[in-house]
Design brief:
Blueprint (H helix, E strand, L loop, with lengths): L11 H5 L2 H5 L9 H27 L10 H19 L8 H20 L2 H18 L12 H5 L5 E2 L1 E7 L2 E5 L5 E4 L9 E8 L3 E9 L6 E7 L4 E5 L7 E8 L3 E10 L5 E5 L1 E6 L2 E5 L4 E4 L3 E10 L3 E9 L2 E10 L37 E10 L5 E10 L5 E3 L6 E6 L3 E4 L7 E2 L7 E8 L4 E9 L7 E7 L3 E6 L3 E9 L6 E2 L4 E5 L5 E10 L7 E11 L4 E11 L2 E12 L3 E6 L5 E11 L13 E5 L4 E4 L2 H5 L1 E5 L4 E8 L4 E7 L2 E7 L3 E6 L6 E11 L5 E3 L4 E7 L4 E4 L6 E6 L5 E3 L1 E4 L4 E7 L8 E5 L6 E3 L3 E9 L6 E2 L3 E6 L4 E3 L6 E2 L5 E7 L5 E7 L4 E10 L7 E10 L3 E5 L6 E11 L7 E13 L3 E4 L6 E5 L12 E6 L4 E9 L6 E8 L3 E4 L9 E11 ...
Length: about 1200
């Protein structure tokens, strides 16, 4: 089967990925390759920075070998870094395995060079290789050839030899040198080891003998430690040779003392013995039963046992609920206890050093362990969980131990239970007839379950008391009462404590009887006919507990059918209740009572007989709805009204009513009628009264108290703008703001006002509800506002003129006057151009209301074709209509000023305007200077002309707009004035100056360009270093020594000043040997490389070939003095402490001599097993020695050497003493 095409060749996507990217360990999707390279380079820079710091530390080591492992550490780091690069294979940083090995070897060689060769040697070698030819090989005066100045000046043979004095020390031993004290746990005696330090100086112990005093029985034991039993810690200080720290191990408590040390070399060892106190660690524990329950208010004694060396300090925590309180007990000690530790607030930490000396103690009774028991009286005032646990115990010695067993001793304190009835004398518990028992509510507090004891006294038998005890588990419980009587609580007890009986402690249980009712009734006769009845009046006599409720239903009989027309429920709080029922239509009715309720029993049968009646009701009429309740209505003058009347009885009806003094009547067919009241023209109160009604049976009934009072208000509500006497008022406001238009309203609020904006609301009305007669009408648009109608809470009213005009206040404007700039076709104002640096300004004009404010941007473009860039923003705040603005001219270019925002007193928030743009071209000021490539300092001979062929021509460079006008001045520096030449119409930007200036006398001359003006009219004064050329006019050459002192030393420079035109030729004689030297500059310097006499013979220059012969120009060169300590050799002399040694110093030179000698610390190199010089301990200066030898006597250890020497003429080294 042929292979699939997917296995034949890689896809196009994979072949497009470079091989270097495919090799990378970290995908570029996780970390891009540039970021990976950045991380690698940053890591390399950090490593090399740390390496540079380690190199500096290694070269500043106080002794050899202090940083001996630095180079090996950096070999490992560099190889690890290169190996990591080889593994991750970051593109552009991919190395093969061979390249990685080669780079690792190169880095190792580089590290070895940096760490083993001091940096100053490398820098010195590079400096020497670079600058030695220029500065290190001046001309030697002895042969007029180049010599090595360092070999002449830094000749170490002038100070030779040093004398090393080494004092052999005595061996010393200090036991417990830091006055430490120790403790061993009582359960670890003989198991746990305590390490006591011994500080040894200049000795290696062979054996150490230590004694132990048992403070409990007074026995003394001696222990001897050999070989591996002696634990050597380390050298205490690497700068202090021979001081080492050893430890001995002890595992028993006692007072330890160093008795003897035998050194390996048999030398004596001085003992500075102090005692080490190793005592049992203090312990503390509570003694109490765990998990005890107590009642609130009870007391408990908790015992605390402490064992160790008193006095003790114990820290424990007392927890009450969630609140923890740390407690500390101090000065815990036995009765009549005496100890020096009592006076030490911090134990042996505050003891005097003498306390650790053996002679300070007659006995050690104070170190004997005691056991002390402390009784803590606890009172449980709160019903919470009390807890106690130990934290730390400290003995009198100062041993502070954290208590390992932090077991918390808990005491559960419970509140006393309480019991009380939830009933009282005024609210007895009722045991209803028919129920087995009643529930007496009982409230319990405490920890259930509860045992409650109560007493029952029957109602009918007071002497028949009974007691009961019942166990209850819920805090809200009930006692079951099976008979009426008095129930009284006697006691209560919960799971832990006995409790208290709270009031009310007694509860009455009563049995109420059933309610009963007796109903008597009387028919209500009709007023029209004595034989007719219109309803029934009932009298109910009730027995029971109010409130009562008696329910009955009214049944109407029509032929053989009956229907319930009404169901009534009569409620009464009294024992007698009278009620009536008046049917609304004629017929035969039956009244059936079916339910009786009181406060205790519901829905009982009242056991009453039904009552029957034939009813013919009388007609009646009353105002309907709201009129029946209010009995009054308010309206305004001129309004009409409609009053609705409800009628009952047998229709049709004749209804009679009065309005004012007139009687009105109407025939009504139905059960409702509307009385129309005509428009009222008289203010005040008008009464509409229903007088009588007649039904179809000709029964007439007079109606009583059926009136409606109509209150007619004299004035209608009005609304108008408060504008004074004006017919129309105009107000100007800021555009876009809300405007409150003043209104005046009459009537009774609230008012509903309808208005419109004449210009914008032609077909639309707006409505606003106002609650105050002076509330303004708030509008948000300009235009004429017209009030259309108003209505208050009673009636509609009238609106009055005038109207109100709202007009937007005119916005401020900004403009540039015509005389300040020219407006071009693009709408930009153009200001006449000026030269750079020339002051210019223009005016802007505001309209509006002061103060004014505007913001403008400043732009600068270098030319018309280049883009402009923003220089910044600026603003103007002014109270004047016309303001002066200064223009920027400090830099050339095209400036643009754009005004974008403006505000004034009314429009306080700056708003954006159409940009107002001003443009001005600032020309660059022209410049003139001499070209840079020509020499600025020239030498001429007297009589030469600037236009001669031997004189180099002078060129100037100009910038600006040609043609130019240049002013040039030629003057002698000794003359206050010079000659000025004006050159006009220069068309070129590089111009040769042809001026017939001639040098007439020797001296210094200056040619300088003064000013320039270009075609724009811009003028500038020439400034800077390239605006002048100095010309030195010389006569015959002259040589002058730089110093007047005739005596010099080997290594000094002989400096001479040459005047004239170089190069110069100088002839001289040194120790009767003639030499000649050439100098291309006006300064001649030679090195005094040997001692001898130097005399200048002559000097000449090149131009005029004249030569001068100075007289008596001689210098004497003296040899450098030399010192030799101990004959110029390095001597090491070992002495014992107290011996004296003598170092001999030989002096070579011309007396008197002065020298400085110093004594340096002798440091022992443990790696190379030799001494080397450490820090300088002391330095001495010896003056005016006439002899050639000097003796230094000393008994102090150190390295003695000469650091500087000086004779009558010279010194070494060349730094002054």
């Amino acid at each position: 089967m042929p292979p699939s095409s997917s296995t034949q060749r890689p896809s196009a996507a994979s072949s497009a990925v470079p091989i270097a990217h495919q090799r990378a360990l970290i995908s570029p999707l996780r970390i891009p390759f540039p970021t990976q390279r950045g991380y690698a380079i940053a890591l390399f820079v950090v490593l090399q920075s740390i390496k540079a710091y380690d190199i500096l530390l290694s070269h500043r080591a106080t002794y050899d070998g202090q940083y001996s492992g630095m180079m090996l550490k950096w070999w490992v780091w560099d190889i690890a870094f290169l190996t990591a690069l080889w593994i991750v294979k970051i593109p552009w940083l991919q190395f093969s395995g061979l390249k990685t090995i080669v780079l690792s070897l190169l880095m190792m060689v580089f590290d070895a060079v940096l760490f083993e060769i001091p940096a100053f040697i490398i820098i010195g070698a590079l400096t020497k290789a670079t600058f030695d030819e220029l500065f290190g090989h001046p001309i030697g005066v002895s042969r007029a050839t180049l010599v090595n100045r360092n070999q002449v000046i830094f000749n170490s043979s002038h100070i030779l030899g040093r004398h090393t004095v080494h004092i052999l020390p005595y061996g010393t031993a200090k036991f417990n040198h830091q006055d430490e004290f120790y403790c061993i746990p009582t359960d670890a005696v003989g198991q746990k080891e305590i390490h006591i330090p011994i500080l040894l100086n200049s000795t290696i112990p062979k054996s150490i003998t230590v004694s132990r005093f048992n403070v409990d029985n007074g026995a003394k034991s001696v222990y001897e430690y050999h070989g591996s039993e002696l634990r050597r810690a380390t050298e205490v200080g690497q700068e202090k040779r021979g001081i080492e720290l050893y430890y001995i191990q002890v595992s028993k408590p006692g007072v330890y003392k160093l008795e003897n040390i035998v050194s390996k070399d048999g030398s004596d060892v001085r003992l500075y013995s102090k005692q080490a106190y190793v005592l049992p660690c203090p312990t503390a524990q509570f003694v109490s039963e765990q998990e005890q329950d107590y009642c609130q208010g009870e007391q408990k004694r908790l015992h605390l046992n402490v064992q160790g060396v008193p006095p003790f300090k114990v820290e424990y925590v007392r927890r009450v609920g969630d609140v923890k309180t740390p407690v500390r007990l101090d000065s815990i000690q036995p009765d009549a206890f005496a100890s020096p530790l009592i006076k030490m607030s911090h134990g042996l930490k505050s003891a005097a050093p003498e306390f650790f000396l053996p002679q300070s103690h007659k006995d050690y009774d104070w170190a004997v362990s005691h056991e002390v028991s402390v009784a803590l009286d606890l009172r449980f005032d709160k019903a919470e969980k009390y807890g106690f646990y130990l934290q730390r115990v400290t003995d009198g010695v100062g041993n502070s131990v954290l208590v390992k067993d932090r077991r918390e001793y808990l005491f559960h304190v419970h509140s006393h239970p309480t019991a009380e009835f939830e009933c009282g004398a005024t609210h007895p518990v009722q045991l209803f007839i028919g129920e087995n028992y009643a529930r007496i509510p009982l409230k319990l507090k405490g920890s259930g379950a509860w045992n409650v004891t109560y007493q029952f006294t029957p109602k009918e038998n007071v002497d028949g008391e009974e007691q009961f005890t019942k166990e209850l588990s819920a805090s809200w419980s009930e006692l079951e009462a099976y008979a009426p009587g008095e129930y009284r609580l006697l006691s209560v007890h919960d799971q832990y404590c006995s409790g208290n009986v709270m009031f009310p402690s007694a509860c009455q249980v009563v049995q109420p009887p059933f309610p009963s009712v007796k109903v008597s009734f009387t028919a209500i006769p009709s007023e029209c006919s004595g034989n007719s009845e219109i309803g029934m009046r009932f009298l109910a006599e009730l027995k029971g507990v109010p409130p009562f409720q008696l329910e009955y239903k009214v049944i109407q009989h029509v032929g053989k059918t009956s229907r319930i027309v009404d169901q009534k429920r009569e409620r009464s709080e009294q024992s007698r209740h009278i009620f009536t029922y008046l049917p609304s239509s004629s017929g035969e009715y039956t009244y059936e009572f079916y339910a009786l309720d009181d406060a205790n029993y519901k829905k009982l049968d009242p056991q009453l007989a039904t009552i029957q009646q034939i009813v013919r009701p009388q007609p009646s009429a009353k105002f309907s709805g709201e009129l029946q309740r209010k009995r009054s209505i308010r309206t305004c003058l001129g309004d009409s009204l409609q009053l609705n009347v409800d009628l009952s009885g047998t229709g049709p009806f004749h209804l009679y009513w009065t309005f004012g003094k007139q009687l009105h009547s109407a025939v009504v067919e139905g059960n409702s009628y509307t009385i129309d009241i005509p428009p009222l023209q008289k203010p005040g109160s008008h009464v509409v009264s229903l007088v009588k009604i007649q039904d179809a049976n000709a029964c007439v009934k007079e109606l009583e108290s059926r009136d409606v009072i109509i209150d007619v208000r004299r004035e209608r509500p009005t609304a108008f703008f408060s504008v004074g006497d004006d017919k129309e008022t105009t107000i100007e406001v800021i555009e876009g703001t809300s405007v409150p238009l003043p209104l005046r309203l009459t009537g009774e609020g609230p008012w509903r006002l309808t208005y419109r904006n004449v210009e914008k609301d032609k077909d639309r009305e707006q409505t606003s509800v106002l609650h105050n007669p002076n509330d303004p009408l708030v509008v948000r648009e300009e235009g004429h506002y017209e009030l259309l109608k108003v209505e208050d809470s009673i009636c509609k009213g009238d609106v009055l003129l005038p109207n109100y005009l709202v007009r937007w206040a005119e916005r401020p404007t900004l403009s540039i006057p015509e005389d300040q700039a020219t407006l071009n076709s693009g709408g930009v104002y153009v200001r006449p151009p000026v030269c750079r640096g020339k002051s210019d300004a223009f005016d802007i004009a505001f309209t509006g209301h002061a103060p004014y404010y505007t913001v403008y941007d400043e732009f600068l473009a270098e030319s018309e074709t280049s883009p402009r860039h923003l220089l910044g923003k600026d603003d103007i705040s002014s109270g004047l209509r016309k303001n002066h603005i200064s223009l920027k001219t400090q830099k050339s270019g095209i400036y643009t000023y754009e005004f974008t925002k403006i505000s004034d007193h009314r429009y306080t928030q700056p708003f954006t305007i159409a940009p107002l743009v001003l443009m001005q071209h600032v020309y660059e000021t022209p410049t003139v200077r001499f070209t840079k490539h020509q020499e600025k300092r020239r030498v001429m001979c007297v009589g030469e002309n600037l236009m001669s062929d031997s004189t180099e021509p002078l060129w100037i460079e100009l910038t600006g707009q040609a043609p130019f006008h240049v002013a040039v001045r030629f003057k002698n520096d000794s003359s206050p004035q010079g000659r000025v030449e004006n050159i006009e119409n220069i068309q070129a930007y590089t111009y040769r100056l042809d001026m017939p200036f001639e040098v007439e006398a020797a001296g210094r001359y200056t040619i300088e360009v003064l000013s320039v003006q270009d075609a724009h009219g811009c003028h500038s004064v020439a400034e800077g270093a390239d605006t002048s050329i100095a010309i030195q006019a010389l006569d015959s050459p002259v040589i002058t020594p730089a110093g007047q002192c005739p005596d010099l030393c080997v290594g000094d420079m002989l400096d001479y000043t040459l005047s004239g035109v170089g190069p110069f030729t100088v002839a001289y004689e040194f120790d009767r040997r003639s030499e000649e030297i050439r100098s291309a500059t006006s300064k001649l310097s030679m090195l005094a490389d040997k001692a001898g006499n130097l005399t200048i013979i002559s000097v000449g220059d090149k131009r005029n070939q004249c030569r001068s012969f100075p007289k008596e120009m001689t210098k004497i060169v003296h040899e450098i003095p030399t010192s030799l300590v101990s004959g110029g050799k390095d001597i090491i002399e070992n002495i014992r402490e107290g011996d004296m040694v003598q170092a001999v110093v030989d002096l070579v030179g011309t007396p008197p001599f002065s020298f400085v000698w110093q004594r340096s610390e002798v440091v022992w190199d443990t790696k190379r097993k030799r001494h080397f010089k450490g820090k300088v301990l002391e330095s001495h200066s010896v003056q005016d020695i006439e002899e050639y030898q000097y003796l230094i006597n000393t008994s102090t250890e150190g390295i003695i050497e000469i650091t500087s020497i000086k004779d009558r003429f010279c010194q070494y080294p060349r730094i002054a003493l």
